[in-house]
Design a protein that fits this description.
Strand order of the largest sheet: 1-12-7-2-3-4-13
Helix content: 25-40%
CATH superfamily of the domain at 139-411: LCP protein
Distance between the termini: 171 Å
Biased composition (Low complexity): 85-94
Oligomer: single chain
Domain Cell envelope-related transcriptional attenuator: 184-324
Pfam family, one: LytR_cpsA_psr
Largest sheet: 7 strands, mixed
Strand content: 15-25%
Number of strands: 15
Keywords: Membrane, Transmembrane, Transmembrane helix
CATH class of the domain at 139-411: Alpha Beta
Protein name: Cell envelope-related transcriptional attenuator domain-containing protein
Length: 420
């Protein structure tokens, strides 16, 4: 029995049995190899070939190895499908979306395109005049000496000169004129704008007036003597009207501007054949080109009142240009718009104080309806071929312009004479 216990538990039961035996009974003594072989060594270091127990490694934070663990509950779907565990970390692939139907291409205008086009149009409408502004000649038109004080509204002095250096060779041949820089004038117009309305008053070139420093002469001689400054001073001395801006138009400006518009409409009241003005037209309203419009505005030898009728025709041509400028076709046709600005800037001169805004206001003032008058006048007592301002009616017209008031109808007539 001892042998069987020794074979089963050599280090426990057999050890206790054998140690209870007395020494000298044939049992090996402690410390001998036989004792160690029989009872086992109690040394702390096990032999190299002894089987060793390896502790199981646990993850940090894991429970005790003998702790009861709760198994995950299988999902109902898994239990119902044969106990298969649920899939984790994977999702079923979504069905591909339906392919969109092919649509026919149709042009679409984005909302931002219209504002962009409007911006480009505005830039063009503003840029073209600004560009041509740089090509306009400037002249010192401010006179020296005493002048009337500032007045309400704005007064422009429009002067038509015989400047012809911008005419083409063909135009000079038709007009039978050479290059001239503009030393004479047969058009003197005061254009007033303000709260009292717009008034266009012509001063006949044969009007006798005091020319500062040169005595009494025809008013157009002031332009021949010292150009724009002396003419401005003479007009201010005659009328008491303060001139704010000066605008000079040459032959070429009339011809080229009318042609750029494609012609203007004039309405002569009688047949007009004037070889000196190269004019031959019939009575009635008609569309004419630049050369005909210039001859029409310069003719003075056909009608009874000569120069008085001529100034009325000059205002008619200017008003016709204004009417053409207001048509929508002027602004929607970029070629026409360019040509008009180019023609107007080629033969125009303005005072040095005028800026692009002032010129724009002048262009607007030239358009639309306005009262058109000739300065009230009478034949000069000293020379029936000359004129003088009517002392009874002219002051009323001058005061209305000076005070920016409505012009009396009695003082505003086409020829400056009393209405019949």
């Amino acid at each position: 029995m001892v042998a069987s216990l020794r074979s089963v538990m050599p280090g426990t039961v057999a050890s206790s049995v054998m140690t209870d035996r007395p020494q000298g009974s044939g049992v090996p003594e402690k410390g001998t190899p036989e004792y160690d072989w029989l009872y086992g060594s109690r040394s702390q270091s096990p032999p190299d070939d002894a089987t060793q127990r390896v502790e199981a490694q646990q993850a940090p934070g894991a429970g005790r190895p003998d702790e009861t663990r709760v198994m995950p509950v299988a999902r109902r779907e898994a239990r119902g499908s044969g106990g298969q565990p649920p899939r984790t970390g994977r999702t079923a692939a979504a069905a591909p979306p339906p392919r969109p139907k092919k649509r026919r291409w149709r042009p679409r205008f984005r909302l931002g395109l219209i504002p962009l086009l409007l911006l480009l149009v505005l830039v063009y409408l503003a840029g073209v005049p600004l560009y041509h502004w740089t090509k306009i000649d400037k002249v010192d038109a401010a006179p020296s000496g005493d002048r009337p004080g500032d007045q309400p509204g704005t007064n422009y002095l429009i002067v038509g000169s015989d400047k012809a250096d911008d005419l083409s060779d063909e135009q000079r041949k038709v007009l039978q004129t050479g290059e001239r820089g503009g030393t004479n004038t047969d058009t003197i117009i005061v254009l007033h704008t303000g709260s009292g309305g717009r008034t266009m008053m012509s001063i006949p070139r044969d009007t006798l007036a005091e020319i500062p420093g040169n005595g009494t002469q025809m008013i157009n001689s002031a332009f021949a003597i010292d150009g724009a400054p002396l003419l401005v001073a003479s007009v201010e001395r005659l009328t008491g009207i303060h001139i704010d801006h000066y605008v000079e138009l040459g032959f070429g400006s009339v011809i080229n501007t009318v042609d750029a518009f494609g012609g203007v409409e004039i309405c002569p009241k009688q047949d007009m054949k004037d070889p000196r003005a190269r004019l031959d037209i019939e009575k009635g309203c008609q569309q004419v080109d630049g050369l005909t419009a210039l001859g029409y505005s310069r003719s003075r030898y056909v009608t009874a009142l000569s120069d008085l009728d001529r100034v009325a025709r000059q205002r008619e041509v200017i008003s016709a240009l204004g009417d053409e400028a207001l048509t929508p076709w002027t602004f929607v046709n970029p070629v026409r718009y360019w040509r008009i600005n180019d023609a107007a800037s080629g033969a125009i001169r303005v005072d040095e104080e005028m800026n692009p805004v002032d010129l724009g206001r002048f262009a607007l003032a030239m358009t639309g309806e306005s009262q058109t008058c000739t300065m009230p006048n009478l034949p000069a007592p000293s020379d029936p071929n000359r004129l003088v301002a009517d002392p009874d009616r002219a002051p009323a017209l001058f005061r209305a312009i000076i005070n920016d008031e409505s012009v009396p109808r009695r003082a505003c007539t086409p020829t400056g004479r009393v209405r019949p």
